[in-house]
From TrEMBL:
Matching HAMAP family: MurA
Recorded catalytic activity of this chain's protein: phosphoenolpyruvate + UDP-N-acetyl-alpha-D-glucosamine = UDP-N-acetyl-3-O-(1-carboxyvinyl)-alpha-D-glucosamine + phosphate
Role according to the record: Cell wall formation. Adds enolpyruvyl to UDP-N-acetylglucosamine.
UniProt name for this protein: UDP-N-acetylglucosamine 1-carboxyvinyltransferase
Binding positions (UDP-N-acetyl-alpha-D-glucosamine): 95, 308, 330
């Protein structure tokens, strides 16, 4: 089987301006949330990526009419009654599609979903989603390939304390609680900016939600929601990926249409490593100064360091002076990039959920594979700093979350292109 690959050649410093797209991890959940209200909802600043297309297909399978009247806008016409069964091929493509469980229970009182797919990142369970929904009154049964949930009458508000501040569970519970009877309190809720974006959309639909952005969210159930218009926030992870590219190449890049406060810790780390980072009126700017210094990184729920930027920082740290310890606390499978970076010449030692990076080591081009979305982006960045040509196979993983990555890096002066049938291209 062949798949597209990125061909990356050692490039000089990245220079210029890049516009951040809408946040993938918010837009996906907003498409699900639109199902909560009959009628036409409009979501703007939606990224043109494969995961969104997959979520739109899930919404269509549940009975919505979905149109894209112009790039970056999704219009959902939601019928009075929704389908409650999804085909395994659809939900299996995308793990985030588990968030339709809350809206389906709220609207129809029942749902049958195939077990979700998505990035292969070790143990990505959904027990917290299911336990929370059970507290709201749902009866849940699940086997190896499907989850069935139902509720007699309406969901009922409850006090739910999450043992871990799960983003997906918080989103599912918010959507289930917003039209439940009574008050729901979610303690140890996730605080990610994408949670606040979802809460803002639900409020625009008539929901009564307070405390989003903190670990204690209070939802007062309303009888029904109305459709709404919403603009998705900028994608902090995409912006952070370009920021790493600027620092890695010693470049100077203005990254616009994103709120730099959503990247507080990663930008702080970049500046401690030696890059100049400053906020602008439209986003922020990163200027590599050469001579990066190593430092330690520990991934944690927001406002901690995001797991979705960990692979990009591994690539960066391979070029920094000194020894860095990177600790991954969120996903087991997140170090699958390490063997690929080693192929390029990085020196990284794995010890359970710690990676010890010794740098700087000169990188040189090789054939590597994108093992997941963020690993793929990180390998493209590493290729910019590697001598010769780096081929990043399995580019389709990157398409799940980055629109036109090659073209946008090229616009900043990088030498990156897409090739079909990479294995032929490499051997020729
Ligand atoms: C995670 C990230 C989020 C990122 C998204 C996309 C965190 C905390 N979350 O969200 O920032 O945008 O990936 O890559 O960094 N877990 C359970 N049971 C559950 C739910 C989760 O054990 O029911 C565990 C997972 O196995 C994992 C951790 O909790 O170890 C993170 O889960 P969660 O925040 O729910 O993941 P996502 O919603 O995918």
């Amino acid at each position: 089987m062949t798949s597209d690959a990125f061909l990356v050649r050692d490039s000089g410093p990245l220079h210029g301006e890049v516009v951040t797209g809408g946040a993938k991890n918010s837009a996906l959940k907003l498409v699900a949330a639109a199902l909560l209200a009959e009628g036409r909802s409009v979501i703007e600043n939606v990224p043109e990526i494969d995961d969104i297309a997959a979520m739109a297909d899930v919404a269509v399978a549940l009975g919505a009419e979905v149109s894209r009247p112009e790039p970056h806008t999704i219009v959902l016409d939601v019928p009075p009654r929704l389908e409650v069964v999804t085909h395994p091929n659809l939900v299996g493509r995308l793990r985030a599609s588990i968030v339709v469980l809350g809206p389906l229970l709220a609207r129809e009182g029942r749902a049958r979903l195939a077990m979700p797919g998505g990035c292969n990142l070790g143990n990505r369970s959904i027990d917290l989603h299911l336990a929370g929904l059970a507290k709201l009154g749902a009866e849940i049964s699940y086997g190896a390939d499907a989850i069935e949930a139902r509720v007699d009458g309406r969901l009922r508000g409850a006090d739910i304390e999450l043992p871990f501040a799960s983003v997906g569970a918080t989103e599912n519970l918010l959507q289930a609680a917003v039209t439940a009877r009574g008050v729901t309190r979610i303690s140890n809720a996730a605080r990610e900016p994408e949670i606040s974006d979802l809460a803002a959309f639900l409020r625009a639909m008539g929901g009564d939600i307070q405390g989003d952005g903190t670990s204690e969210i209070v939802v007062r159930g309303v009888d029904a929601l109305a459709p709404a218009h919403h603009r998705v926030i900028g994608d902090r992870i995409e912006a952070g990926t370009f920021a790493v590219g600027a620092a890695l190449t010693g470049g100077d890049v203005h990254i616009t249409d994103v709120d730099p406060s959503h990247l507080h810790l990663p930008l702080e780390k970049l500046s401690q490593m030696g890059a100049d980072v400053f906020a602008t009126d439209r986003g922020f700017r990163v200027r590599g100064t050469g001579g990066l210094r190593a430092l330690d990184i520990v991934t944690l729920p927001y406002p901690g360091f995001p797991t979705d930027l960990q692979p990009q920082f591994l690539a960066l740290l391979s070029q920094a002076q000194g020894t860095a310890i990177v600790t991954e606390n969120v996903f087991d499978g997140r170090f699958s990039i390490v063997s690929e970076l080693e192929r390029l010449g990085a020196e990284i030692e794995l010890q359970a959920h710690h990676a010890v990076v010794r740098g700087p080591r000169a990188l040189s081009g090789a054939i590597v594979a994108a093992t997941d979305l963020r690993a793929g982006a990180a390998l493209v960045l590493a290729g910019l700093a590697a001598e010769g040509t780096t081929v990043v196979q399995e580019a389709r993983h990157v398409d799940r979350g980055y629109a036109d990555l090659a073209a946008r890096l090229t616009a900043l002066g990088a030498d990156v292109e897409r090739r079909v049938d990479d294995r032929v291209a490499v051997s020729s």
